[in-house]
Amino acid sequence: MKLPAPRELLIPAVILAFGLLAPVLAPSYRGQMAFLWVMIVFALTWDLLGGQMGYNSFGNILFFGVGMYACVVVQRDLHLGYYAALFLGMGVGALLAVTVGALIGSGLLGLRGHYFAIGTLGIGIAAGELASGWDFVGGGGGMVPPLFPGAVGGRETFFYYLSFALAVVTFPVLRFLYAGRFGLAINAIRDDEDKAEAMGLRTTRYKTTAWCVSAFFLGLMGGVVGNLVGFIDPREVAFAGSTFGVWMVLMAILGGKGTLWGPVLGAAIFHVTKELFWTYLLGWQRVALGLLIVVIVVFFPRGILGWARERWPERFGQRVDEPASEAGR
Amino acid sequence: MTPILEVQHVRKSFGGVVANDDVSLAVPAGKIYGLIGPNGSGKTTLFNSIVGQHPVDGGSIRFAGREITTLRVPQIARLGLLRTFQQTRIYRGMTCLQNMLISVPPAGLGWRSVYLRPSAAEERKAEDLLQFVGLHAKRHLPGGDLSFGQQKLLEFAMALMSQPKMLLLDEPTAGINPTLINGLLERLRQANRDFGITLLVIEHNMRVIMQLAEYIYCLAHGELLAEGKPEEVQKDQRVLDAYLGAT
């Protein structure tokens, strides 16, 4: 594989340095900053389907919740050491999320356009209702993950770095997928699925794979967030369709659907703005957030990077070659 | 000569409308055949039936010695039978080059190879074919930015990239600038001659199809009305009546 040019490594290097140093520089904001990485993973995994493949899913939160519950159940029931149980739980959660994705994906991904969006919305809501009625996972009262064994405040630092690590792994994996034929295939499905089928592409296989990749990272992240928050409520934390579930869509749209960096940018802007609202507009924070959402949809329908691509297409490699190169024809 | 495509007694109706009624035709390997008929005579329906877009009500379709009547679109495409669309279809948000690169023969996209980058050989071939249809200078533009005629050319180049055994072309010259039509015809012949691709072409432009095809089938009201060499079909009174509206 070809390594990126040094110029392209500058931004990732700055982000890495920021991520590593942030808890040291601003320890009181570890929780909020951990959620910055969570949001970035949300936006990235949503964009894999919604942006790159054109399947607007409102049900990705399902995988997040499944991963979270699976992780905490493993931590509760297997009586292993804290870290062994945590990492095993995250793995089990990711596998379960992928399994669920593969099972319902084969049916749901046959739906197109609005029907798919509504179908996934239903599944996300149904999952929350199921979890709140199932006593094995605490029912409506939710679950509490085991206590962190380390020093006071160590929990935040540990889960900050865990969510940071997850974001740092998710991004290059998606970048790799988008750079290969797989990326072209899901883009083709986005642009014209009938044409892709007529050209013999195995659309169902690619769609399911994309959904499973998304489910994998969301499942892992579910375990992290369950422990970071310290309390699992079925509707407010695990299957929080009206907050996390909607935000992941908005963040990807804000940054630019179907671009590699768009979701990262969108998540960062959205999260910081949201935290500022919560700090300075307390009482009105949800109104302000609602207005922000309206502004995003009305003024940035293509997102920041989508707008930039329209404004400066050459910078994104869309250009007509000089006639000179055609001289040999 | 053994036909590469054999359609026998195919019937297809939508509700009470019989779009294809007992249509039979055969296209020998390596030839260019034409399919004509007035609007609404069932040409595109027949194409859709052949490539598996919808199930047929009766009859059988064989391609390259294989029964394909009940296969679905992607399976048939992977056997090497491709179609282009009357309302041109390309991937609008992807650049011309990307359009080409994802049109590699789909049988080669296995479980593992799909995660790799397109090879240098594929990129060279994509560029050569874009050159072949005269779109090389625009290879880094999104497909949706091209004019309609250029999109048709791109769709044709994508079909060639996929190395099919046979191509079904639905009105390849519709909407193309008349001065470009001769160039396109030459490329169709070249594809047939140099790449050995069998062509079945739906065409409304009589001058075009009479020049291009060696043998022509004519549909009217969903039934096969006439068939023969271009000069025979041209003189056939039933064909003239069907086009001019005599009863």
Q: Which spans of chain A of ≥5 residues are poorly predicted at pLDDT below 50?
A: 324-329
* Largest interface (C-beta under 8 Å): A-B, 35 and 44 residues
Please report the number of helical segments of chain A. Answer: 14
Q: What's the alpha carbon Rg of chain A, rounded to whole Å?
A: 21 Å
Helices and strands of chain A, in N-to-C order? HHHHHHHHHHHHHH
Task: Name the average pLDDT of chain A.
Answer: 88
What is the mean pLDDT of chain B? 89
Proportion of residues in extended strands of chain B: 25-35%
What is the β-strand count of chain B?
Answer: 10
* SSE order of chain B, one letter for each helix or strand: EEEHEEHEHHHEHEHEEHH
How many beta-strand elements of chain A?
A: 0
SS content category of chain A: mainly alpha
Topology at a glance:
The complex is a heterodimer of chains A (329) and B (247).
Chain A: H1 6-25, H2 30-50, H3 61-77, H4 82-108, H5 113-132, H6 154-179, H7 181-191, H8 193-198, H9 203-229, H10 234-238, H11 241-255, H12 262-280, H13 285-299, H14 303-311
Helix pairs in contact in A: 1-6, 2-6, 2-9, 2-11, 2-12, 3-4, 3-9, 4-9, 6-9, 7-9, 11-12, 11-14, 12-13
Chain B: E1 3-14, E2 17-28, E3 32-36, H1 43-51, E4 58-63, E5 66-67, H2 73-78, E6 81-83, H3 96-101, H4 120-132, H5 148-161, E7 166-170, H6 178-194, E8 198-202, H7 206-212, E9 215-220, E10 223-228, H8 230-235, H9 237-244
Parallel strand pairs in B: 3-8, 3-9, 6-7, 7-8
Antiparallel strand pairs in B: 1-2, 1-4, 4-5, 9-10
Helix pairs in contact in B: 4-5
